[in-house]
Structures are given as structure tokens and as C-alpha cells.
Amino acid sequence: MPKYLSGRVKLRNQSDLSVDRYKYLALDEAEPNLGFPPVGGSSDIPVGDQYQVISVINDDSEVNRYWIPVGGGIIPGSLSIYDQGTLVGGVSSTTQLDIRGNAITAVGSNTGLANPGIAVTITVAPPGLDHQILFNNSGEFDGGSYFVYDNSTVGIASVGIGTSTPTQNLHIEGNLRLTGTIYDTDNEPGTNNNILKKNATGGIEWVRQEEVLSGAGGTVSQIQYHDDTGLVGGAPNFVWVEPPGGTGIGSVGIGSSAPSAKLEVNSASGESIRVKSASGSGNIVRVDKSASDTTPFIVDTDGQVGVNTITARDALDVYGTVAVGNTVAFYNDARTYYASLTASSTLGENVELTLPTKVGAASSVLYTTGSGQLSWISMSGIATNAFPNSDSLAEGSSNLYFTNERAQDTLGDAINSGIQTGINVTYNDTANSISFDVGNQSPYPFTTKGFSMPI
Q1: Helical H runs in 379-421?
Q2: Three-state secondary structure string covering 288-302
């Protein structure tokens, strides 16, 4: 071994080191004193496997040395701790770690014992129960008891809000508030007044309200209405009966569940129909047979009724023939008494009378010549018009009319002279007939010859 005047010796090559150098150390086999480490550690460390020398307690009085690869543990004081890329503490200076927060736990193999051991298990795990969503609870992680994500259901990854057992992809137990809108299966937000409808493929889509078939309230034919519970109800006494086969015009019943006409109104008591008009003029009811009908049935706002006319000129205005069964009664203003015209029960043919064209003079009577035309005639003209001055009545004749007009004096006594009218009747028994003449020869109403006629 060469020596220098300084007393130092040159290191022996690695291949020439003695096997027992751990027991008998020669100067040229000693490791140099490395001194204080430079800042940041040694530079330009070659790439390769790294080893370190160790001794084992009680192994030949700890004089034996062994090479082991660097690893399998932490060299005290060799850690550099970084937080989000920022160095915390010094470089390779950390010797102790303090684990805090309920999401990370550190457990030593022999914590609290005389020989605590060298193994510490650090566990990063979420708090709470399985499937609970993590949230910040006063600065600590916590699991939401009623906010869960459940992937245990086959084919469904479910989120539950307000429930720990969601049954669908999103299960909300409670109220939901949206400040935006809902997009349907076609990714459409819908438009104003649209509603959501389930389509044939099982998705939901925005549609117009008239496209939705809604369930009806009540029973068949009942008209739908908004009932006092806020639901759609069926009116029991307001129905629309569909025509047979679904074609044609149906029937509407008010107060009747089986209308016998296109419109039937049935009231057990009180008024059945009341029609009001706010205009105060014109017709309030009109019944036409067609759009161009000029002879309708109308009721105006004053209650006047018109038949076959568009304007009622009186309480009842009928344009045309009026058919009345049996009797027509004309009441006084107090409606206590009436005058009536009655058709005979033995009437065998139509009897048509035409009224006079004007009002008759005082003391005139209605007169007809047999044609049905009524005229006004004076009393003095009845006998003259009924009979000629002389005529005969055959057997079986029924009626004989006469007048007796006699002048009176100032005392009211009859005067036998002057204008007088009488009937002279003569019976002819050979011809079995009666002859008569009218004149002013007799002061008596009747003069008979050949028989007697009590007056």
C-alpha cells in the first residue's frame, strides 16, 4: 500500500477490497468523510441502481455491513412535501407527517405499544355510507343521507334526492323548483301553452294542448265542467247524446238524461228557459227554417211574439191563418170575465166569414148574403132585403123576418098613421102554401088569413 508524505494513502480499487474488511479495516479500504451535504444534494448523480449500506442488530456485534437497494422505506429527513405544486417545508427535510381530516386516516401497526413498529397505514376513504354523495359540512367531508348515487341497480345509475333508495335515474322525494325549462326527448324546450305528453316510444315531448286526449268526468254523454273540487266532472242533468253510428246531429238534454228532441229542456219546478238581452231593442229569440227565412218565429225584447214575421207589432202578431181548437176567449182588462166564440160540436164543414171593411153605423147589425162576407146593415133594411113585397113560403120553410116601425107622439103613445111596416100572411089550403106581402097597410106586425098565428 503506497503512502504519501502527508500520511494519506490511496484508495484501493473496488475489485481489490478484502473480504474481511468489515472486521479488519485497512486505511486504503476506509470510506472517505463526505462532510456536510451541499444545498439541494449532490449534483450530476449518474443514472443506475442505487444501494445503501446497512448493519443488522446483533449480527456479529454489528460489525457486518450489507448492501441493499435504496427503497422499501423512507429515509428520515428525506421527504419534500408539496401542496398543489407548492413546496411545503424544506427540501428533503420532512421527518414527521400529521394526518388530519376525516377523509384520511393513519393507523400504525403497533401504535401505543413499547415497540410501535415501523409500518403506518394511511387510508383515504369517504365518510358516510355507501352511495352517499360527499359534501362540505362545516369544513369537513360528510355523506348526504338523502343525496345518494346508487349504481347497484342493473342497468340504472340512480341519483336520489330526499330518498336513500332511488328507483329511477333521478328520484326526488319532495318538491322541485325549476328556474329554467325542461327539454323533451327531442331536445326541444316547447313553446307557450305547450304541455308534456308521453309519446309512442316512451319519451316525453312538448305538444299543443288540443293534441292530448284527456279522460272524461262523469258518465257517458254528460257534459264536462270544472267541479267544486277543481277536477273535471260530468253534469248529471246536462247531456249530449251521440247520434246512432256517430253520424248526423246528436241531441242535447238540459234537465233530461234522455232527450227526445235535438234540444230538450226539462224543469221539475220554476222556469225552464229565461232569455235576456242587454240591448233593449230588436229580437231576443228567432227561429228560422233556413238562413234566408223571412217568416220566422220571433220574440222581441218587449216580450211581443211574432209568427211568420220578422217584426212583432203587438203582443201577438200572426201573419197568416190562426187555428184555435173549439173556443176563443176575450177577457176584460181585469181578466175576471170573458166573451168567447165557440165552434159547434156538430160542425160538418168549414165556415169562413170575412169581416166588414169598415165600422158600421149606430144600431147596425152584421148581415151576410150567404157568401161568408159580413156587412153592416140597418134594422130598417132587414125585411126589405130579406123579402120582396110579396112572395110565398113553401111547406118546410123555417125563418120569417119582419120589422115594425111606428111613430110615437110626444107622450110616447104609438101613432097608427104614418110610416108602418107589416107582413100580411095568407094560407092557401088548396096549394098547401102560405103567401105574404109587406106593406104599410096594417098597424100590426102580422095579419093572417085562413089560419091563426099567435105572436
Answers
A1: 380-386
A2: CCCCCCCCCEEEECC
- Residue 83: what residue type? D
Distance in angstroms (rounded) separating the CA atoms of residues 51 and 14: 15
C-alpha–C-alpha distance, residues 26 and 12, integer Å: 10
**3-state DSSP helix/strand/coil % of the chain, to nearest 5:** 5, 30, 65
Beta bridge partners of 196: 206
d(CA 432, CA 133): 137
Indicate whether 402 pLDDT > 60: no
Long-range contacts of 435-443 (CB under 8 A, 24+ apart): 435/390, 435/391, 435/392, 435/393, 436/387, 436/390, 436/391, 436/392, 436/393, 436/400, 437/389, 437/390, 437/391, 438/383, 438/384, 438/387, 438/388, 438/389, 438/390, 438/402, 439/389, 443/406, 443/414, 443/416
94: buried, middle or exposed (CB in 10 Å: 19+, 13-18, 0-12)?
Answer: middle
Strands 86-88 and 104-108: unpaired
C-alpha cell at 420: 108602418
> pTM, whole model, 2 decimals?
0.38
pLDDT tens-digit series, residues 306-326: 999 989 999 999 998 888 888
Kindly indicate the confidence band of residue 433, based on its pLDDT and cuts at 50, 70 and 90: low
Q: Which residues contact 426 (CB under 8 A, 6 or more apart)?
A: 434, 435, 436, 448, 449, 450
Cα–Cα dist 268/262, whole Å: 20
Distance CA 132, CA 3 (A): 76
Give the whole-angstrom CA distance, residue 160 versus residue 170.
Answer: 6
Q: How many CB atoms lie within 10 A of CB 158?
A: 19
Confidence of residue 391 (pLDDT cuts 50, 70, 90): very low
Residue 340 grid coordinates: 168567447
Q: What is the pLDDT of residues 89-109, one digit of tens each?
A: 877 777 778 888 888 888 887
List of residues 6+ apart from 309 with CB closer than 8 A: 295, 296, 298, 317, 318, 319
